[in-house]
């Protein structure tokens, strides 16, 4: 049976961040993931994680100075990326996180090829630093409907970069929401790339709400993950239609929901 993690950038957002850990634990989640927790002291976040006996999976690299969605593949911004990554690495190590999602950023079409070379070099450098702290690097294809010109948009592209980077702690974050929008064929593409997938996430398509409506049959996806031997957590990175607790009916068969 799949194990689910609450993404606290999306779930329980009617509360301040530090209160979301307790809410997630009360709903039956055993693990959480964060996006941009940097406004909170790492010591306070770690205290809540330990208080509620949660596993902390990962965080994102910070947004760029002008709120750019990552800088890992943006030509000419290598030094800025290094600074953001070191901030993420220090924070992740302080809270006990296992992974850092390095966002590639948006790149104009005429610079995409150059951006991919920059991305490979930046991620290789980041992976070497993270490996010293036993932290994985995740790279995630994000659909270009939601983020036009986002550099990394397809699993095939991510897998090719992982091969070029050639670091054992670099893995793909496979979000079924984004992959469905960028070509679908979810089960076959997951199986094709499973050996380099380190984490998965879910949300309904096209609404990005609870995974109980829309184009994707998520009960079938969860069964597939079990059949394929996927042993990691499934990140719940969706936008609840109402309060998070009111929309957890989809998760009750898997042990999630208020008790």
How would you summarize what this structure contains?
The chain is an alpha/beta fold and 259 residues long. Helix content is 36%, strand content 14%. Strands 3-2-1-9-8-7-6-5-4 form a nine-stranded parallel β-sheet.
SS class: alpha/beta
Report the count of strand segments: 9
Tell me what portion of residues adopts beta-strand conformation. Answer: 5-15%
What integer is the average pLDDT? 96
Number of distinct helices: 8
Could you give the order of strands across the largest sheet?
A: 3-2-1-9-8-7-6-5-4
Series of secondary-structure elements, N-terminal to C-terminal: EHEHEEHEHEHEHHEHE
* The CATH architecture of the domain at 15-193: Alpha-Beta Barrel
Beginning-to-end CA distance, first to last residue: 19 Å
CATH homologous group name of the domain at 15-193: Divalent-metal-dependent TIM barrel enzymes
CATH topology of the domain at 15-193: TIM Barrel
Give the biggest beta sheet. Answer: 9 strands, parallel
Structure description:
With 259 residues, the protein is an alpha/beta fold. It has a domain at 15-193: TIM Barrel (Alpha-Beta Barrel). It is 36% helix and 14% strand. It has helices at 17-26, 42-51, 78-95, 112-132, 155-165, 176-181, 186-193, 218-227; strands spanning 3-7, 31-33, 55-56, 58-60, 99-101, 136-139, 170-175, 197-202, 233-236. It has a 9-stranded parallel sheet. Helix 1 (17-26) runs parallel beside helix 2.
